[in-house]
Design goal:
The complex is a heterotetramer of chains A (540), B (314), C (271) and D (518). By secondary structure, chain B is mainly α. Chain B contains 13 helices and no strands. The chains are: A alpha/beta (540), B mainly alpha (314), C mainly alpha (271), D alpha+beta (518).
Chain lengths: 540, 314, 271, 518
């Protein structure tokens, strides 16, 4: 929806940002936004997209200085404005929404007062008028019982509700430009969709232009008119969204698009006795409470039955709080179930039972957060080597050989073995974690959100590596993820969970193309998948 | 709210009991017999036996403990072996003396240190910050009793402005009592300010790093409003807890400052009764200090929701 | 960043100078720190006795130099005892949680409310009036605060994925604690140890003040300061110099401690 | 008990005004190192409490300057031939503070109260037979005579009655006790009345106008001339020695006891008169003869010969005292020429003795304490230096007083720098450190002949015969060296120029000796 008049709301030309020691973080970027237009800046972490956005209204961290370039907003050169004048601009003409809902609202101040602050500063409305306007806006963002919300404190609201309140706060002053810095990254797919739709609706009503910053390409592609791709502080390419996605001109853009997960081939899984069986699994979390108040335990898993065949990759999907991680940890043996059975190769896996020793050798786990999956005090070689302790008949030389071999398998250079985790990138650390899991040739791996903490391109490489290793070693895998696009690429079978129960289970194509359960449909609808890229968002 | 108080006191009961019991048995195990101390070097066996019976020291330790414990529950902490005064009134009188100095000192120190700490955090690595932090570190490094001694020498002996030593109770002569308090309070204020500046600065730095400060700035608020309305209230929570901690520690142990300024405070009473093996007074002091410690933490926690509403619902 | 380098530099030079003096003091001192010199009692600082003499006519400078080693030794041993005991309790209660944690912490808090002097007296009477009594007493007096901090660290470490991974490899809990938990407690413990060194030095001086510190023939800064109190009107230098030594050492420790904490604690790196 | 007794105060002001021709009441302030433990004579007390209370109450008999016992409230004391019956004839002119005349009924009432275990009198065990002596019967044949029968001959019966820690067995009026029998305050016959006591702060004593002093031209211990010269004495509790010194300098305190180390500083202050008064307490170096090395008499003699007593005492007492190696205190009536003989310092002989002894360079532990005003540590420090000179290695182990007392009572030490409390009668003084170690671990000299001699001295009351016994004991001690008596303790007193005549005795306040504006 390209605005026809040429006078753009914001012109950024040759903007360069650098640290005190001269190291440039953003190199001469230029772009402009027309009034009411919705533009997205996409890039991986460290591309300088957030820094650029925040510097537009002078909120860059004190250590960063603008060394060149101009920012013209509504005909005014922002960089020449005095601090007071710039402050007048903020809040009234340019609003902002942040990424982390948990810490972006002042925990010790009621919602009403936080919303009122901007209004009181920039308008001459009486308190009563302001209150009315706030209540009206809260209703617009679908907060139940707005009057009560005014005197409530932030911690009483869910992440999605807080993001809506942030949106209300920014839109109260009808800014002409809204900067949204990763507004929904921390939210569930379903909630993410609601907040994005709301933002589009509000900004269109008030004719507010939106500068959206995100690393989630499909989500940006769905909502924005034009897109700018940034890499290492430079703008690689900027074009109308449809054109950019269908005919990318630059290699990096192509690499980004290619990294989007696409549906993988259908694989024939030989029918065989299941390697892992779970019958009627129940797990309760003690509700805590002191010596006195004994609250009833919280039931996380309400009777789970599933089978995993040898060599099969089963995906476990669901929103946060669905219990998928709990199930994964229970199956791996990290959590003690309150009822039901878990059998591995037909035998129980309880700690003291005879199946336990074999299960410990045959089942390994890959974790989500690369930062906490490796012991910071141990070298990479030592961490991988630890998995080999207790392997019968392994001389130190054989052990070293085995470590180098597995590092090679995850395409990491041999010299990484002597380096420490904090010296590696997120992707490299996850490769080490996978190496540690496969080095003992386990028959079964539980992967708990292995790629969700990674950047787009790195995620693609890791998924591809994982698939390779799986097919070469033939281990079966329980793959837990909230990202349907990833699941679509890697899974043979999909299990959908909600509130501790399995709502639907079946082969990947069956579940993706002909979902039976409403919740599955809702999940699929919410997840922006590049598969059938269409601007459905823009046509109401 | 009452339920919260009762629950806290019940939670503290085991700790109080354990420390009470531990003190009871430890002081009886270390050598030194209060009766012998009373009678001096010429304690003949017979009068020693009389005294032991009178003080109840001849019974077995368990019986002595249960006796003391039952009486303690009724608020009777027994009599001092040395002076025969009831322990409770003895401890309270001395506590009032120490408390008056400690509360004034900590209040003053907090009034100076907390704003200073926050300003230092706000102007991080600026000249103000470096100046304040260095001053705090120097103050922190000077032992309070040496500081007291030097102040005493300078203001008392050399300049003679302030009364050097001794203690006048408020009841007798309020003005004189105030002059006696100046030096001990000054000693504590200087020392505690050092500690509190660093604490306030650290917790303010934590807060300034969070998103809602940038959010506040994005609303166009002035730096002053951001600091006062947003940073101050949230940073004060953790600092407030630490002030409670500092208060608790000081009340139990400024014996050394009391020695320098000859103040008949709780610390001095504890030390003298330890040297005199005055068992009931030692136990009374320690129990009282532990109880005050619990009370202060309770008050700190009760006021905490003022700074952080999330806690209110706990 | 500038602040951190400055701290380390100043702190380093102060401690260096004092360590040098203490080092020399072990072998040579201008006068014999122990023998009594009745002639020149309470002499003011002059060309011969740079820092004057005490009530027994002994040279203050020599005593300060020999005292440095004793005070340092006591502080180091005290910190070591406290860290050892505290870590043991902290790891046990932080790792095992549940009833063990509740019981250990109840004792721990009871000990926190315990004044150091009573402990010191208890041990001095049992172990005899010597350094070891003081070291054990102060060690135990400070162990609870170490235990609290170690417990906090261990509780957060316990939730780390690499602990779960190690458990999945079939390693015993004991192995996990030894291989993963303890090494990761080292950084916070080092930072704590530097500040505790200062506390121990202070506590020894305070104990001497109350007549409980290291027995007088062996000089420590604490008992020199305590001994100077009756003569403050006539010979104030007796109080000034030991106090100054203690303060300078503490200043050095605190400055070095700050620099060390910034380096070890990544979160604080940008201050 | 905190309030001021209106009646007494008015009485004092009136009497003060009338008796001394309408002068304003004269008033002095005296510093006390600590508050009194209680106002009941001889019960729950310490030396400091006795020092105050013995200005208010008097016993039938009291100590003279030289430690001999003389009549006080009794005009005369006759002892029966078999030494088992004592007849006390009371003075007729003695009144209590509330005006009542002293009669034998009061003596009987006071005695029965002391002997009642509930009173918990300090010296109950001395008279109820538990320490051999038992008072069988006390009668009052008439208003002015009291007869006491005891179970065995004892030269120390009167001496024990007069002991200050027994409160001089002070005779009290029935009015000292409230209607319900609980203790109110001491109404005695002494030169001062017990007017008021503010716990922890101080005591007010006022002059007893109706006081009749026993005969004597000048004060003689607790007897002799005792007419009070000051109307009101305010006893102020000032625990910290440094404060006392400053109180004196600022004239807010008239009389105070100082530390011997303060004397050199206060001596040349023109406004103050400073005096050191020696008493019967003893500072000594003890040997535990059960320790193999200490049991060797040669080694003990070597130590005795190695010490330069003049210099040691000079340092320890800040030059205010001189050596006295005898157990009999300097000013005692029994202190004759033999008692003045002491150890001879002779380094060469000391080294020779050392070589012959079983000492092979071991380090000896010498226990001392640093509690003020005890000189224990200074003595130990000088001894260490002097023994080092002849090659004996000594390590000083400083203990806190309560722990040292424990080790002393248990005899658990090699050497110890210790201070004995005052004992005026030489028999009691020797008995402090002589006795069977098996029965009493604290005893130092376990010599049967010495024990027997002391036993006879306790029963024989003839002065010449006791003098021979004490001289024999002194010679044996010099030869056997069970311990080394160094010097008699001393108390240092300082008074403002405006206060004249004050002189303490045995470290205790004799307030009746004080005058204002001498």
């Amino acid at each position: 929806m390209q605005k026809n008049d040429t006078s753009s709301l914001l012109q950024v030309s040759g903007l360069t940002l650098a640290l005190a020691d001269g190291k440039a973080l953003v190199h001469g970027i230029s772009f402009d936004i027309a009034p009411g237009e919705m533009i997205g800046i996409v890039g991986e972490s460290g591309s300088g997209k957030t820094l650029a956005a925040r510097s537009l209204i002078g909120l860059a961290p004190p250590a960063v200085h603008r060394t060149a370039g101009s920012i013209v907003f509504d005909g005014q050169e922002v960089t020449a404005l005095s601090a007071g004048a710039l402050r007048k601009l903020r809040g009234s003409r340019i609003g902002m929404v942040f990424q982390e809902p948990m810490t972006s609202l002042n925990p010790s101040m009621a919602i009403g007062r936080q919303l009122d602050e901007g209004l009181a500063l920039h308008t001459t409305l009486s308190p009563a008028q302001r209150r009315a306007r706030i209540l009206e806006m809260l209703e617009r963002v679908r907060i139940q019982d707005p009057a009560a919300a005014l005197s409530a404190y932030p911690h009483r609201f869910s992440g999605g509700m807080r993001q809506r309140i942030m949106l209300a706060s920014a839109m109260l002053l009808r800014p002409s430009l809204l900067i949204a810095d990763e507004p929904t990254t921390a939210l569930d797919a379903v909630v993410q969709r609601e907040v994005m739709d709301l933002m589009v609706e509000l900004t269109r009503d008030h004719g507010t232009a939106v500068l959206m910053i995100s690393h989630d390409l499909p989500m940006v592609a769905r909502y924005t008119d034009r897109m700018v791709v940034m890499h290492h502080g430079r703008i690689v390419e900027s074009n109308r969204t449809a054109a950019l996605v269908s005919a990318p001109r630059e290699d990096y853009t192509r690499k980004l698009l290619a990294a989007m997960p696409t549906r993988g081939p259908v694989r024939e899984i030989p029918q065989a006795a299941p390697i892992l069986e779970v019958d009627g699994l129940v797990l309760d979390f003690p509700a805590g409470g002191g010596l006195l108040s004994k609250r009833p335990p919280k039931r996380a898993l309400k009777g789970i039955d599933l089978r995993i065949a040898p060599g099969e990759v089963v995906a476990l999907v669901g929103g946060s709080g669905s219990g998928k991680t709990t199930l994964g940890r229970a199956i791996a043996g990290l959590l003690q179930p309150s009822g039901g059975r878990i059998l591995f190769e037909g035998k129980g896996i309880a700690r003291r039972s005879e199946g336990w020793a074999r299960y410990r050798a045959q089942c390994q786990m890959v974790f989500q957060d690369p930062a906490s999956s490796l012991d910071p005090r141990m070298t990479v070689g030592a961490s991988i080597g630890e998995a080999l302790t207790g392997m019968p008949g392994l001389t130190p030389a054989a052990r070293r050989g085995r470590i180098l071999e597995v590092l090679q398998e995850v395409s990491l250079p041999a010299e990484v073995a002597s380096r420490y985790p904090h010296e590696l990138s997120g992707g490299q650390r996850q490769r080490v974690a996978i190496a540690r899991a496969v080095v003992r040739r386990p028959a079964f791996i539980v992967a708990d959100e292995p790629v969700s903490a990674l950047d787009v391109t790195v995620r693609a490489q890791i998924l591809e590596l994982f698939a390779q290793l799986q097919s070469r070693h033939g281990f079966s895998c329980l793959f837990i993820s909230h990202d349907l696009a990833v699941v679509e690429q890697i899974a043979d079978r999909v299990i959908v969970m909600r509130h501790g129960e399995i709502v639907e289970q079946g082969p990947r194509d069956e579940v993706f193309d002909r979902p039976h359960h409403d919740y599955t449909r809702e999940l699929l609808a919410a997840a922006p998948r590049m598969g059938g890229l269409v601007h459905d968002a823009m046509t109401p | 709210m009452l339920r919260f108080v009762v629950r806290r006191l019940l939670a503290a009961a085991p700790t109080l009991f354990i420390s009470g019991a531990a003190v009871f048995f430890l002081i009886r195990l270390i050598p030194g017999d209060p009766a012998a101390l009373l009678l001096g070097d010429q304690a003949d066996a017979a009068s020693l036996a009389d005294l032991h019976r009178r003080l109840g020291l001849d019974q077995g330790l368990p019986t002595q403990f249960s006796l003391w414990f039952q009486r303690m529950l009724h608020g009777d902490l027994g009599q001092s072996i040395r002076t025969g005064e009831p322990v409770l009134s003895l401890v309270i009188d001395h506590f009032v003396v120490s408390a008056r100095i400690v509360f004034v000192a900590v209040a003053l120190a907090a009034a100076i240190a907390v704003p200073a700490g926050m300003l230092a955090a706000w102007r991080q690595n600026g000249k103000l910050d470096i100046g304040l932090v260095s001053a705090a570190t120097v103050l922190l490094s000077i032992p309070s009793f040496w500081l007291g001694l030097m102040l005493l020498y300078l203001f008392g002996l050399e300049l003679g402005w302030l009364p050097v030593i001794g203690y006048v109770d408020f009841s007798e002569d309020p003005v004189a009592a105030l002059t006696y308090m100046v030096l001990p309070v000054a000693t504590l204020v200087l020392h505690e300010t050092g500690i509190l500046i660093r604490m306030a600065r650290a917790s303010t730095l934590e807060v300034l790093r969070l998103d809602y400060i940038t959010y506040a700035r994005s609303k166009g608020l002035s730096e002053g409003a951001v600091l006062w309305r947003h940073a101050f209230r949230n940073a004060f929570g953790p600092t407030w807890t630490l002030i409670g901690l500092v208060l608790g520690n000081l009340l139990g142990g400024i014996a050394v400052v009391e020695t320098v300024f000859t103040i008949p405070g709780l610390g001095r009473l504890l030390v003298d009764s330890i040297f005199g093996r005055d068992y009931p007074v030692i136990q009374g002091c320690l129990l009282f200090v532990a109880f005050v410690y619990v009370l202060i933490n309770l008050v700190v926690d009760l006021l905490y929701p003022l700074f952080d509403p999330r806690v209110a619902e706990a | 960043m500038k602040l951190r380098k400055m701290n380390a530099a100043i702190g380093g030079t102060i401690l260096g100078a004092i360590a040098l003096a203490a080092g020399i003091g072990l072998f040579w001192t201008p006068f014999d720190p122990v023998t009594l010199g009745y002639a020149k009692r309470l002499a003011a600082p002059d060309a011969v006795h740079w820092l004057g003499t005490d009530e027994f006519g002994r040279d203050v400078l020599s005593r300060l130099m020999t005292a440095a080693a004793t005070s340092a030794r006591i502080s180091v041993l005290t910190v070591a005892t406290a860290v050892l005991l505290g870590t043991l309790v902290g790891v046990l209660s932080g790792y095992l949680r549940g009833w063990t944690d509740r019981v250990l912490m109840a004792f721990n808090d009871a000990l926190l409310a315990f004044p150091g002097i009573l402990l010191a007296l208890g041990f001095l009477a049992v172990a005899g009036a010597n350094e070891y009594g003081i070291v054990v007493a102060l060690g135990i007096a400070y162990a609870p605060s170490v235990a609290r901090i170690v417990r906090g660290t261990v509780m957060s470490l316990r939730e780390m994925d690499y602990i779960a991974a190690s458990r999945l490899m079939g390693n015993s809990e004991f192995f996990i604690v030894w291989r993963h938990v303890l090494p990761n407690c080292v950084a916070p413990l080092v930072v704590l140890a530097t500040s505790m060194f200062g506390w121990a030095l202070l506590a020894e001086s305070a104990l001497s003040f109350l007549g409980l510190g290291v027995p007088p023939p062996a000089p420590t800064w604490g008992n020199m300061l305590a001994g100077s109190r009756p003569f403050i009107a006539k010979a104030v230098w007796l109080a000034i110099f030991p106090g100054a030594c203690i303060s300078l050492t503490l200043l050095g420790i605190n400055l070095l401690g700050d620099a060390l904490r910034d380096r070890l604690d990544p979160r604080m790196r940008n201050t | 008990m905190k309030h001021l007794h209106g009646a007494t105060l008015i009485a004092v002001l009136l009497t003060g005004a009338t008796a001394t021709a309408a002068f304003a009441a004269t008033r002095i302030v005296v510093a006390l190192p600590a508050d009194i433990r209680s106002s009941m004579p001889g019960t729950n007390r310490d030396d400091n409490t006795d020092s105050v209370i013995l200005n208010v109450v008097e016993g039938l008999v009291g100590y003279g300057e030289g430690g001999d016992v003389k009549p006080l409230l009794a005009r005369s004391v006759e002892t029966s031939a078999d030494g088992l019956t004592y007849t006390f004839r009371l003075r007729s002119d003695v009144r209590f503070h509330n005006g009542d005349k002293l009669s034998s009924a009061d003596v009987l009432w006071s005695w029965n109260r002391y002997m009642d275990p509930k009173t918990e009198w300090r010296c109950l065990a001395e008279f109820d037979g538990r320490n051999d002596l038992k008072v069988l019967k006390v009668e009052a044949p008439d208003a002015s005579t009291v007869v006491m029968r005891i179970n065995r001959r004892s030269a120390l019966f009167l001496d024990t009655l007069a002991r200050t820690d027994c409160g001089m067995t002070g005779i009290l009026s029935k009015a000292s006790v409230k209607a319900d029998g609980t203790w109110d305050r001491p109404i005695g016959t002494g030169p001062f009345e017990f007017s008021d006591w503010k716990r922890g702060r101080g005591i007010t004593l006022s002059r007893f106008a109706g006081y009749k002093s026993p005969e004597g031209s000048k004060p003689d211990g607790y007897v002799g001339l005792k007419t009070p010269g000051v109307d009101v004495v305010q006893l102020q509790v000032i625990p910290d020695p440094a404060t006392v010194k400053l109180g004196m300098a600022s004239k807010s305190v008239d009389i105070a006891q100082l530390l011997s180390s303060d004397v050199v500083e206060v001596k040349n202050d023109p406004a103050l008169v400073t005096s050191a008064e020696s008493d019967s307490s003893k500072h000594a170096l003890l040997f535990q003869t059960r320790d193999p090395l200490m049991a060797d008499a040669k080694f003990r003699r070597a130590v005795a010969a190695a010490l330069d007593y003049k210099q040691l005492v000079d340092v320890a007492s800040d030059g205010l005292s001189k050596p006295n190696n005898s157990a009999v205190f300097e000013r005692s009536v029994y202190a004759d020429a033999t008692q003045r003989k002491g150890f001879k310092t002779d380094l060469t002989q000391a080294k020779a003795l050392l070589k012959e002894s079983s000492y092979r360079g071991q380090t000896i532990k010498l226990i001392a304490n640093k509690r003020s005003p005890m000189p224990s540590f200074q003595v130990a420090l000088v001894t260490q230096a002097m023994l080092q000179a002849i090659g004996i290695k000594v390590e000083i182990e400083v203990l806190e007083w309560a722990t040292q007392l424990d080790r002393y009572n248990a005899g658990n030490y090699q050497m110890m720098s210790f201070s004995y409390s005052g004992r005026l009668d030489p028999a009691l003084s020797y008995e402090q450190f002589t006795g069977d170690k098996a029965r009493q671990a604290r005893k130092v000299w376990d010599n049967p002949e010495a024990i027997a001699l002391i036993e006879t001295a306790r029963t024989v009351s003839d002065k010449a015969e006791r003098q021979k016994i004490f001289d024999r004991l002194h010679e044996m001690a010099l030869a056997d060296v069970p311990l080394i008596n160094l010097y008699n303790g001393l108390t240092v007193w300082s008074r403002g120029k405006r206060v004249g005549g004050f002189s303490p005795w045995e470290g205790k306040l004799r307030l009746w000796t004080a005058r204002v504006g001498a």
